[in-house]
Every structure is written in structure tokens, then in C-alpha cells.
Automatic annotation (TrEMBL):
<dbReference type="Pfam" id="PF07980">
    <property type="entry name" value="SusD_RagB"/>
</dbReference>
<dbReference type="GO" id="GO:0009279">
    <property type="term" value="C:cell outer membrane"/>
</dbReference>
<feature type="domain" description="SusD-like N-terminal">
    <location>
        <begin position="70"/>
        <end position="227"/>
    </location>
</feature>
<keyword id="KW-0472">Membrane</keyword>
<dbReference type="Pfam" id="PF14322">
    <property type="entry name" value="SusD-like_3"/>
</dbReference>
<keyword id="KW-0998">Cell outer membrane</keyword>
<comment type="similarity">
    <text>Belongs to the SusD family.</text>
</comment>
<feature type="domain" description="RagB/SusD">
    <location>
        <begin position="337"/>
        <end position="482"/>
    </location>
</feature>
<dbReference type="InterPro" id="IPR033985">
    <property type="entry name" value="SusD-like_N"/>
</dbReference>
<dbReference type="InterPro" id="IPR012944">
    <property type="entry name" value="SusD_RagB_dom"/>
</dbReference>
<keyword id="KW-0732">Signal</keyword>
<dbReference type="InterPro" id="IPR011990">
    <property type="entry name" value="TPR-like_helical_dom_sf"/>
</dbReference>
<protein>
    <submittedName>
        <fullName>RagB/SusD family nutrient uptake outer membrane protein</fullName>
    </submittedName>
</protein>
Length: 483
């Protein structure tokens, strides 16, 4: 795993990352000279790509650790004992753990703030004359990136310092108190609305760029996730319908009733399915937004092999028996997700994987199946159980699992139907960094995880704020559970 740096986000310099990016068209820029920068529109575009580049560092592999490390999809690999992962699985978080630092994500926020401030000034100087679409695209994406970062962080730490102006000088005032979650939610909503009003593009020049940059579809995915987190189900239904109606996205293929392939005899053949390649190759038709890594072109890694995998290495986690037991014998997702030794191989080729050059699998943030199952939750909450189960069955039959019949769910309560949907999300989205948030969002974390890791207090849902951040910013207060 990468070497974690424990600096305050308010004192960190902007990193110089000079690699090219296959999904983007020009070199990303994250370091500037005030005398010669922000004088051409191409520089603003390079700065935008720099934000995506910073996001690579912030999300790898922390994003899957935040979403899976405290939940029930994973079990500790006893051969790769790590104090940090042991603390996650046993729910013994403390403010000295490297993963409790929000520094990397705030670097992305700061980059977005730089873009928003300077593009506004560039427009006032006439530099965007005749380039209204470029102006809207750059700013719309910057708003979406900032909204995503604040939404991501508030689910982890709760209250946050709301920083909307760029920090460029170590001598700037760095003492900023945390705003309550209502203010954070308002900021997220405003930024998503600004991205939408900017007419952020629906697609870009290449299929990979359309999946690796924020589009209107990706904004609607954040809207859906955000509204579900806040239990605003009608709003979530509106946002999710825009994605389901978008022909850009389609479920990838996994199961075919006419197939003569026996994956039990040769499980490596499952690598040839579009579903498996969604994780091993990236940029599938199902993908809405993913973070792009490429070792051969940019030497960027997602470090997923340090967290998962059983390919001659010793990752942090293995598959939990609790999750494995949820798959029926006909459900081909089990062949994609696990090997026979409970190794988690979802993101890796089942044969021929080379760690030195292929540990660059993309991190899928949103895909169509995720949104469909969130929509199923919202439909269930608003009384449309049949509509909810129709969506669940689309996901199940794609995998070769038996569809639920009306007789199997008639008479179940809303809460029981929600359990069915959450089980389907566990099967479909396992190891993609979703499970912890699903359990917290639906109020089931204590019931499900209490017997596993002893969590018993809702205040424990939040993570501690890193001790270094508190030392450098005297206005920060620690989350109550860790005081």
C-alpha cells in the first residue's frame, strides 16, 4: 500500500503530478505560478484534469476501506495481519490511524476551489469569449467534484470545515471550525444544482472519458445517492429515473441460459464475460463514473491487490462466510467474486494476472446496477413493492439467480423487503465500497454488525478525526464517541 502522508490539508502544497491520462486529453496540472497561469482556457482544463488526478490518490485504496473495512462482507486474512485493518474489522478506530485523515480528499476540494475562482476571473477578463460550452463544462465538473468530496466526507466524519475558497499560501488562516451536517448538506445540494445548471456534458469525446469524468449522468448518480442518504425518496426516484432513461448506460451481460460453458470446470473462462471485464478492464456500458488508473501509461495504481486478491499474495481481507452463504449455486457472481480459498478476486483476471503491471484496476464509484437497487429501495419505501422487485429481479436474472415471484414476497413488510434489497446489494456490489454506507443509511448497522464487531452506539458510526488535523487546526473538535 502507498505510504500515507499525515499533513494538514490546509498546509499541504499542491502536488505536481506530471503524468498523462488516457481518459483525458491533456496533461493534468496541480501546481501553478500566479504570474503565468490562468491566462489560457486550456490551462483551466489542465487544472480540471489535475483534480481528477488528485482524486486518484485520495481514493486508492481508501475508498474501499471506508466502505467495506468495518462491514460484514470481509474477514481478516490471518496471514496478512495489519493493525489498521484489524482495527477496522474489530471496530476499534482511533485518531492515530492513517485512514482517519481527510487530507487527500481536501486536496481535491482545494483544486476545485481554485478552478471555480479562477475560471470566474478568466471569464470576466474575456478569456472565455466564444467558449461558453468550455466554461460551463469545466465549472460544472468542478462543482460536481466538490459536491462528491463533501458528500463522501460527511458520511465518514459528519460535520466538516466548509472550505469554498482556494488555499494557496501556508500563511493563510487555517483555523476553520466544522459546520454542522445541515450546512454540509446545503453545500452539497447547491454544488450539485450548480453542476446541473451549468449543463454539464452528457458525454465526452471518448467512451473512457465519459466514464472517467463527471457527466450529467454521474451528477444524477450523486443526487440519487445523496437523496437516499437523506431519506428523500421521491427526489431519489426523480434522479434515478433520469439515469434509467439514459441510453448511455446498460447492464453488462453475465448469464445466458443457452450457454454451454461450465464455469465450475474452468472458472477462468468467466473473464470473457462483459460483467467480469467491467471490473478487470473498466469503462463498461454499465459504468456511470469510475476513477481511472493506468500503470503502463501513467504508473498509477489503485492498490486493490493490497486489500483483496488471493493470487499468490497476501491481501488484507478474505471473503466472509456470511457473504459467501448468500449466493445460490446458480448465481455466477460467486465465480466472479471469490476463488475456492475465499480469496476476493472480483477485480483481477482469474488467470494471467501480473501484479507488477496490472494493479491498476479502476475504482467504480457508480454503475447502473447500484442506481437500480437504490431506486428499488426508494420504490419500496414509497409503497411500490412490485416495481422494487422488478428491478431486483433484473439484477438477479442477469447473474443466473432465480427471480423472486410475487408469492415469495407478498405479505412481507416494508422492512423485510428492504432486507431482500440489501442482500441483493451485498451480492451485486460487494467489495466496491458500498456495504458500510448501506447499513448505516438504512439503520441496520447495529443489528447486523453488533454480533460481528460489537458496535452498539450510533455515535460510533462516524470515524474519528485524525489527531494531526486537530493539532494543526485548534478550532476542530473531535467526534463525541472518540473524546
Amino acid at each position: 500500500m502507498k505510504d500515507y502522508k499525515m499533513y494538514s490539508f490546509m498546509l499541504i502544497g499542491l502536488l505536481l503530478l506530471g503524468s498523462c491520462k488516457k481518459a483525458l486529453e491533456i496533461d493534468p496540472t496541480t501546481s501553478y505560478s500566479s504570474s503565468n497561469y490562468w491566462t489560457e482556457t486550456s490551462q483551466a482544463t489542465a487544472a480540471l484534469y489535475g483534480a481528477y488526478n488528485l482524486m486518484q490518490g485520495a481514493m486508492a485504496p481508501e475508498s474501499v476501506l471506508y466502505g467495506e473495512g468495518r462491514a460484514d462482507n470481509v474477514a481478516l486474512n490471518p496471514l496478512a495481519l495489519s493493525s489498521q485493518t484489524l482495527n477496522l474489522l474489530t471496530n476499534n478506530l482511533n485518531s492515530s490511524l492513517p485512514i482517519t485523515s481527510w487530507n487527500g480528499i481536501y486536496q481535491v476540494v482545494n483544486q476545485s476551489n481554485l478552478i471555480l475562482k479562477n475560471t470566474s476571473e478568466m471569464k470576466n477578463k474575456g478569456l472565455y469569449l466564444g467558449k461558453a460550452a468550455d466554461y460551463s463544462s469545466v465549472r460544472g465538473q468542478a462543482f460536481a467534484i466538490r459536491a462528491f468530496c463533501y458528500f463522501y466526507m460527511t458520511r465518514i466524519w459528519g460535520k466538516l470545515p466548509l472550505v469554498t475558497e482556494p488555499l494557496t499560501d501556508a500563511n493563510q488562516n487555517v483555523s476553520i471550525a466544522r459546520s454542522d451536517t445541515a450546512a454540509v448538506y446545503a453545500r452539497i445540494q447547491a454544488d450539485l444544482d450548480s453542476a446541473s445548471l451549468a449543463a454539464i456534458p452528457a458525454s465526452y469525446s471518448t467512451a473512457s472519458a465519459t466514464r472517467a469524468q463527471f457527466t450529467m449522468g454521474a451528477v444524477n448518480a450523486i443526487y440519487t445517492d445523496f437523496y437516499m442518504w437523506r431519506h428523500q425518496y421521491q427526489n431519489a426516484l426523480t434522479a434515478s429515473q433520469k439515469i434509467l432513461s439514459n441510453s448511455t448506460y446498460a447492464l453488462t451481460a453475465l448469464y445466458s441460459a443457452s450457454s454451454t460453458i461450465d464455469y465450475n470446470v474452468n472458472p477462468a473462462l468467466i473473464d470473457n464475460t462483459a460483467y467480469a471485464q467491467m471490473f478487470t478492464k473498466g469503462f463498461s456500458s454499465e459504468s456511470i463514473f469510475e476513477i481511472d488508473y493506468n500503470f503502463s501509461e501513467r504508473a498509477t495504481r489503485s492498490f486493490l491487490i493490497t486489500v483483496y486478491g488471493d493470487l499468490g499474495f497476501q491481501p488484507f481481507f478474505k471473503a466472509s462466510g456470511y457473504l459467501s452463504s448468500k449466493f445460490t449455486s446458480t448465481d455466477l457472481r460467486s465465480k466472479v467474486n471469490f476463488d475456492t480459498n475465499s480469496g476476493i478476486v472480483k477485480f483481477f483476471e482469474k488467470s494471467g494476472f501480473v501484479r507488477g503491471t496490472q494493479d491498476d484496476k479502476n475504482i467504480i464509484v457508480y454503475r447502473l446496477a447500484d442506481i437500480m437497487l437504490l431506486r428499488a429501495e426508494a420504490l419500496n419505501k414509497t409503497g411500490d413493492i412490485a416495481g422494487a422487485m422488478t428491478l431486483v429481479n433484473q439484477i438477479r436474472t442477469r447473474a443466473g439467480a432465480v427471480a423472486y415471484t410475487p408469492a415469495s414476497y407478498t405479505g412481507l413488510t416494508t422492512d423485510q423487503i428492504e432486507d431482500l434489497i440489501l442482500d441483493e446489494r451485498a451480492r451485486e456490489l460487494c467489495y466496491e465500497g458500498k456495504r458500510w454506507y448501506d447499513l448505516v443509511r438504512t439503520g441496520k448497522a447495529l443489528k447486523v454488525l453488533g454480533p460481528i464487531n460489537g458496535i452498539s452506539n450510533p455515535e460510533n458510526f462516524l470515524w474519528p478525526i485524525n489527531l494531526t488535523e486537530i493539532r494543526l487546526n485548534p478550532l476542530l473538535d473531535q467526534n463525541s464517541y472518540y473524546q
